[in-house]
């Protein structure tokens, strides 16, 4: 059993005002000891948690239960969005307009995603760093994964593709851009540096993912397909092979990140004084596990509503399904990480912001997408990696621009502005594109 | 004085005066054209007895004769004469082109002079808007005459020319002249410009890709137009942020490095504010007149010279419009002051890509003309490759002549491509030029309707 001393401790420091930032913001300090290490991913969501007033647990079971409840449910600033969950279930049961079900489900997903992240972190205290890192790596984008799998089950392949693509674009351009912008504006006089090696690794993984997306596309466009390739669905086979390759690469990346080169990915040391407390998990292992399972079940339920009502919402709001999948869904799914990333950039801790944004993008591109293709393979659904010209072009562009921006190790607000404007332009593009729902990507035996 | 400093430059002096000039907002853009000036010899004028006449003559001498390019000034009245008396249209075209060269340089000089009076920020802004006045005026006239293809090609050619030709020759000449020395520059300026050019490239690529996603190209025309207009607004916002970044919050990134010795005295404007302003307005009017001739006669010149309009728009027009900056950039590279050359070339291309092009879209929107950001496959591809090659070449902060060679060769290849491409702008051109050569093929290998180019 790994020993418990924790690296990161959280302190509740509002009145002391060491940071001159008014609303209570957690400070994270790092004990460079052996043991567990919080990844950037975890650290960002801790910002949205508040330390609950811990009453020393007395022997009463009810007391324990209430503490547990308070910690988990009320332990976040996003608690205000929790009522959306029962409302969404009500709306669905009583058939109160499908657009409402869609919107309420979206709102309900935001705090759930954050809580799942929190619970994963809590469980990681008990399981040690490596398993914790693995857990985070798989569950970090749980919302996107669940939405994608449910959409796959309902055979809405274009929703899958577009929502995953939108997640990558949102992480690379929106989250990163707004972080760099806020960080640059807040630190106008200071020099903003970060370690570019982490960004480089993520960029190269993303380029591999891009290659795996572009090959089926170019295959479909460039080659005059013979009857043979048409009949065996060559694009599909290529996509499945690429997915296996991408999963292998992701495993290698995990190995790199969690075992051999961990120092590249660890968050920066803080300069502030050591306030001494070590962190402990605030909920027990089994209760956290139970909560995790429970919340995942609710996420699954809400995601099912979302996927089921997306066309109805698109009709009643007058926006295309593409736009909703590419822009709205990822913004919701990423909201907690987004906020955390901005706050860290504000404090000139760019390594963490970059770790969150790039790590999340890499995870979706190299893990969730190939996983969906494999799952589709198992379910005999023909999903391939051909995301059609416009979307693949946007993806290529986003990866290139981000890789170019991050390659020199410094930052200023103009970089954030440029990335954000790229995202707005892509959003405008998908807004004006009004494709009917039955577009070419749902029939994907290869040739357009 | 600006001309004093230029005189020192020609005589192997230094430009320490340049560091002081940044109090007056002289960017690299301004400084480059100063190298083409000569110090006026005012002794002749001082012999004139009458005071006011003397001032006027001094003014005239400063403005008209203050540049080595003044030999080209006679082309202006010749062009006007050729137009009025109906000489061959290609003569009008050629003479107008020649006449535009010194005018562009003088406008730059006058903008700089006015900047002395208005302070650095407004001076920088003035330069940012007027720095590419020639290209802007030509583009607006072409829009007015509904020659959208000329607009697109000439602006694209400007960007390509700045990125590849000007930069390539500067790096080449600088590299050859400084073979033994290390050539360094601050890469952060190049990075910001490259990033903005990539944003501009995105805004160009999206309409192109959008056009090919729909089931039919005709269906996608309106969304492409709407997207282009939205992207133009976004690009203008980006340009404004870039100006704030360049002129206000991060000025130190863009200022040229100090020279070694302390030489020249404090500079002073050589002409008064109002006379500078008056000259500027006058010159802009003449530029407008010559640009109108150019845009009018471009097809006839293309006919009689046997070159396609696209080649003239992409290659010839920008070379003319950029001639002064080009010479300046080469001279500064020769003196191992690469930051200034880079500032000129990259700054100019960023200005055109992020300001002039979106402005033209907005202007055509106001006129009710359908111009979008879709510059066709070949042109957008050339643009993309140029930006990527340049960004890559400049990303390490040092330079050698080989980089210049590569950039120049890229430009030559692109020009060769447009030379062999004979794009008819109007249907009857098909008969004029070789009827066997196909129209531009679009991505799906269907012949493109010629109306798409207008």
From TrEMBL, chain A:
Pfam families: Na_Ca_ex. Residues 1-43 are annotated as: Disordered. One of its GO terms (biological process) is intracellular manganese ion homeostasis. The lineage of its organism: Eukaryota, Viridiplantae, Streptophyta, Embryophyta, Tracheophyta. The chain crosses the membrane at residues 72-94, 131-152, 164-188, 200-222, 234-256, 283-303, 323-346, 358-381, 387-406, 413-433. Vacuolar cation/proton exchanger (CAX). Translocates Ca(2+) and other metal ions into vacuoles using the proton gradient formed by H(+)-ATPase and H(+)-pyrophosphatase. Gene3D superfamilies: NCX, central ion-binding region (1.20.1420.30). Residues 99-258, 288-425 form the Sodium/calcium exchanger membrane region domain. It comes from Dillenia turbinata. GO terms for cellular component: calcium:proton antiporter complex; plant-type vacuole membrane. This is Vacuolar cation/proton exchanger. InterPro entries: CaH_exchang, CAX-like, NaCa_Exmemb, NCX_ion-bd_dom_sf. Keywords: Antiport, Calcium, Calcium transport, Ion transport, Membrane, Transmembrane, Transmembrane helix, Transport, Vacuole. Residues 27-40 have a biased composition (Basic and acidic residues). The keyword Transmembrane helix applies. The keyword Transmembrane applies. It is found in: Vacuole membrane. GO terms for molecular function: calcium:proton antiporter activity. It comes from the Eukaryota. Belongs to the Ca(2+):cation antiporter (CaCA) (TC 2.A.19) family. Cation/proton exchanger (CAX) subfamily. It is a multi-pass membrane protein.
TrEMBL record, chain B:
GO terms for biological process: intracellular calcium ion homeostasis; intracellular manganese ion homeostasis; intracellular zinc ion homeostasis; lithium ion transport; phosphate ion homeostasis; regulation of stomatal movement. It is found in: Vacuole membrane. GO terms for cellular component: calcium:proton antiporter complex; plant-type vacuole membrane. Residues 91-248, 276-418 form the Sodium/calcium exchanger membrane region domain. It is a multi-pass membrane protein. It comes from the Eukaryota. It holds the Pfam family Na_Ca_ex. Keywords: Antiport, Calcium, Calcium transport, Ion transport, Membrane, Transmembrane, Transmembrane helix, Transport, Vacuole. InterPro entries: CaH_exchang, CAX-like, NaCa_Exmemb, NCX_ion-bd_dom_sf. One of its GO terms (molecular function) is calcium:proton antiporter activity. The chain crosses the membrane at residues 63-85, 91-110, 122-144, 156-179, 191-210, 230-248, 268-291, 311-334, 346-369, 401-421. Vacuolar cation/proton exchanger (CAX). Translocates Ca(2+) and other metal ions into vacuoles using the proton gradient formed by H(+)-ATPase and H(+)-pyrophosphatase. Belongs to the Ca(2+):cation antiporter (CaCA) (TC 2.A.19) family. Cation/proton exchanger (CAX) subfamily. PANTHER family: VACUOLAR CALCIUM ION TRANSPORTER, VACUOLAR CATION_PROTON EXCHANGER 3. This is Vacuolar cation/proton exchanger. It comes from Dillenia turbinata.
